[in-house]
Amino acid sequence: MDKVNHTAVSEFVFLGLSNSWDIQLLLFAFSSVFYLATLLGNSLIMFTVTSDPHLHSPMYFLLANLSFIDLGISSATSPKMMCDLFRKHKVISFSGCITQMFFIHLIGGVEMVLLIAMAFDRYVAICKPLHYLIVMCPRMCTLLLSAAWIIGLIHSVIQIAFVINLPFCGPNELDSFYCDLPKFIKLACTDTYRLDLMITINSGFMSVSVFLILIMSYIFILVTVQKNSSGGSPKALSTLSSHITVVILFFVPCLSFYTWPFNPSHLDKYLAIFDAVVTPFLNPVIYTLRNKDMKLAMRRVCSQLVSFSNIS
To answer: Is the distance from CB of 301 to CB of 47 less than 8 angstroms?
Structure first.
């Protein structure tokens, strides 16, 4: 395919979420509040874990990195979506679209592996408590984090490598508010059935596999907790319920987008809003409200910040 065909379409047009001005204002207010809360909540978690010595443990190290990832997920789509709500012509360049998809899949892949690392951390802490500090040493935490970024990068590069040279010479309208890979490849001037299949195998299989691994691991941990204590450890059960809730919130949209991308439904658009705007906000809320140590640490940090501002 010659270069002219590759460059025939230089930009893509988002159809957005609604043509109603009232609904767009409502969506802007909704998105702005959640995005600001996401920035503040996740930044506070990272700052608290970094500054409070009581939280210098593997679990909170992984939690701080999850907050960083949530900031990335939200920032990859939300700012442009909010700006586009006030634009009649919602466009993104070809390179901008490729970049957005790259970071969405990079961050998504990293979060999947990071959630597995957090499940492994809870398994060792609850099922092998005497070996916890030996297994979850700083070197292991660094290896787990490095593996998450490497796997996420490989996953994203593979996805983009298959689509970056597709010929686009006709329609350029994306029925979405961000560059969504399944919708993006349908605009190509070629048969995309094999690419649809590749997405299902790559993203879909990865999502299903990781989701099943996480659910089975948490079921195993819950059974172990119930066996080792008559009523179960309240702290362990509270922590596990937080982890399971976050896993479900993250994977429900992913499974919808990528397990069967051949016939996307209108529901996908609203799941995408939930995934991009609400989930990154809910993660810090879930972890902080159900974690006594985190709440105490945040109070100490906030008290210190208030004292410092008063002195200043």
So the answer is: yes
State the pTM of this model.
0.86
What are the CB-based long-range contacts (under 8 Å, 24+) for 26-30? 27/85, 27/273, 28/82, 28/85, 28/86, 30/277
Distance CA(271)–CA(248), nearest Å, equals 13
CB atoms under 10 Å from CB of 158, counted, come to 14
Length of the chain (residues): 312
Query: Quick one: tokens of 48?
Result: 């608290």
Task: Give the Cα separation of 96 and 83 in Å (integer).
Answer: 15
pLDDT tens string 21-61? 888 888 889 899 999 999 998 998 999 999 888 888 999 99
Pairing of strands 11-14, 91-93: antiparallel
Other CB atoms within a 10 A radius of the CB of residue 253 amount to 20
- Cβ atoms within 10 Å of 132's Cβ, excluding its own: 17
